[in-house]
Structures are given as structure tokens and as C-alpha cells.
């Protein structure tokens, strides 16, 4: 599956999770529920995937963690905030660049409609 095909299916599952839970919960709640539903749907998913930073050819663990990595291709950064900011976008783009991934989804579950809280983040796609 391509990154776009994966993202389309993941968005549908994320909307199911949001419809079941609604806005206003902690980010970790959405992460655990989305992780469960993605695994149930047959996706390979890694939670809190550590991603090193390479500085002068040395791998450094600087504490970067991808919320969910789907099929080793799609980065999911989950938020439960009043509104997404440029800093959230930059954080997701940093994960894409450090891991050499092409596509990420920034998902704000604290939206009345999840589709209003989805932002695609692209790195050389």
C-alpha cells in the first residue's frame, strides 16, 4: 500500500474512534484506542517509536518519539488541543525528516468534527 492509501484508511478509522469517544479526552486515550483499532484492522503499528537524530554521523537519542507509526511509512502525531499550531506542524515535519518518511497526519482529537482537526504533513512526496 502507498502512503496515501494507508492514510485514507487510517483517517476513516480515526474518525470511527472520534465518533465513539468525542472530543475532550486526553491525547493518550485517543492514541491507545486508535492503536487498538489499527491493529484490529490488520495494520502493523508501532507506538511511541523512538527516532534518533543524526549529528555529525552520530546517532543521538534526543527523546523524539512518534506517537504511532503505521506500516513503517505513515507518521501519526496525535493532539488533543484547542487548535493546532505551527509548532505542532513543525514537530510532525521534524519526525518525517529525521525518519526519512514521506507522509504524516497531524490529528487533533479535540475538534467537534475530526475532519476539521486533520492536517497532512508531507516530506518530499
UniProtKB/TrEMBL annotation:
It comes from the Bacteria. This is GxxExxY protein.
